[in-house]
Amino acid sequence: MTDRETRAKAARYHHGDLRNALLRATEALLAEAAAASYGLLRSHVAAVAAFVPGADEALEELIGAAAWSLARGLAMLMVDGAIAPPGDVDLDDLVDDVLRRGVAGMAGMGRP
């Protein structure tokens, strides 16, 4: 193997190590952000569920899963360009309004 080939092989190996390290770091940051987001969502769900007569942890879990699904679906629709805030509505305001109304509606339905 020539010196040039050896350097190229070393560079590919280093690139692979760097790529793997960046992927691990990114995955850890994404997992941390997802956990924080879900925790925030669950705290809001718990606050709403407190107003539902007879609400228990199982109902909170159900509402939390439905709210997370709503948030995920809304995010994917926005990423895909299927929906956008109308007119001069701020994106954060749209997301907040959709999620607030969705969670309140789910909590208002009580148990299935």
What keyword list fits this structure?
about 110 residues; mainly alpha; elongated
Would you write up a description of this structure?
The mean pLDDT is 80. The chain is mainly α and 112 residues long. The longest helix is centred in the N-terminal third of the chain and has 47 residues, at 3-49. The protein has three helices and no strands. Helices cover 79% and strands 0% of the residues. The N and C termini lie far apart (70 Å). It has one domain.
What percent of residues are in strands? Answer: under 5%
Largest sheet, in brief, is: none
Shape: elongated
Q: What is the averaged pLDDT score?
A: 80
Structural class: mainly alpha
Task: State the end-to-end CA separation.
Answer: 70 Å
SSE string: HHH
> Total number of helical segments?
3
The percentage helix is: over 70%
Task: Compile the SSE list and pairings.
Elements: H1 3-49, H2 57-79, H3 91-109
Summarize the structure.
The chain has 112 residues and is an all-alpha fold. It is built from three helices and no strands.
